[in-house]
């Protein structure tokens, strides 16, 4: 054979696909949305050893398990960058399967937003994941409020130099454990007593670790733009990316004003700063019983409705309750103080459907009453406590924010037990069981507000990049095999304010770290989830 013929054969061999390989799983014929925002295409995904081994229009080889995905969407597993589901799962026994999130395609959850977790809290959660097992992965923020409570318990002022140094040491400890960054809850105790300089000093600690700053801003209802700009400023001064947590424009005073915040973010981004936000796709913020807004003397927890009614009967006691409810006890937190009556809307009223969607401030005016007297009357007159949202949101503002390319989808949800079981207070909201499915179904498919490829990017590639979770978020060979497979024609949220526990539909299969955690729309009982450290922490190991 001539040298030319040998050379030609060598070139042909180099361009020929690899010979048949054995994989653990091959997903055949689905429409692949790789998490980058690129349009979908029909192809295959192969998984081996917990990693994505191959992605393409045709993957040659065989596998122990073949998933036929014709007509289905195949995407990276979704990353919920702001969740509180672990609070509810902690109180239950057995594996932390978290079927409500698997049914939405969520494979990684960020614990500790709003400043909750100190390093000690994080260690406890990590131990739970290891001993009980989890259906999904967890990553974590280290939290300002949790640390502040440890160093400055009950102190209502900004930290001094010594206290700041002690808190900085704990932030560093959290980052060394693999946290993605610092989170704050500046609307809550004790973050509400800090100043900007204190937070900047702590945010600076995460910079060498490649971390981010995540903020529940200081006064998002009554001083929305000022509060969001403070978060942007903290990120800029610390030299790290900033994320505006569960961004929205709530209440009567902010209706139609989300554009002001969008403009502020765009200005910062144009100047080279990394600023993003997360959003849940609903027209109401946190929910809870109307009786829960009352503050009773000496009681830190949410009061029982019966105790509220008893306290309101006596005129002297009623006056004290009003003062505490509207101004907080000893300068502390209260919902009325934080958001105002104009931010409260009734979302469920058993036996009184005429009250649903009524704004408390507007209803009080219509009835010729002071808002406090109105809510007191409603609590006394309705044995089944009315359910309210503590942040009304204009639907137009929801949509205007959702299409911004720097906005990711997150739930801000809690654990919502199946219907008929006791519901964790944080699980009252439909966002807990419906956020991701709602964007894919209602906003992308039905309203055509954004293409499916872009919706997937907002749930996978975007949060992975921002959080420095470098081994997931895309369908790319070598990355972790966190994969969601769903029917784009059927994916839908079913939960409502009145029935928040209803699970989403349309998710077919979910793979976590290469293991099938959801199959045929049901949790398999597998516990492949683990604690996920940010990329820079892994690279040091």
UniProtKB/TrEMBL annotation:
Among its keywords, does the record have Signal?
yes
InterPro entries the UniProt entry points to: Amidohydro_3 (IPR013108), Metal-dep_hydrolase_composite (IPR011059), Metal_Hydrolase (IPR032466), Metallo-dep_Hydrolases_sf (IPR050378)
Query: Amidohydrolase domain: from which residue to which, for each copy?
Result: 422-516
Keyword set includes Metal-binding: no
Specify the signal sequence span.
Answer: 1-20
Alphabetical keyword list: Signal
Annotated coiled-coil positions are: none
Q: Which GO terms describe its cellular component?
A: cytosol
GO MF, one example: hydrolase activity, acting on carbon-nitrogen (but not peptide) bonds, in cyclic amides
Known PANTHER family for this protein?
Answer: COLLAPSIN RESPONSE MEDIATOR PROTEIN (PTHR11647:SF1), HYDRANTOINASE/DIHYDROPYRIMIDINASE FAMILY MEMBER (PTHR11647)
List the protein's name. Aminoacylase
Q: Which organism is it from?
A: Sphingosinicella microcystinivorans
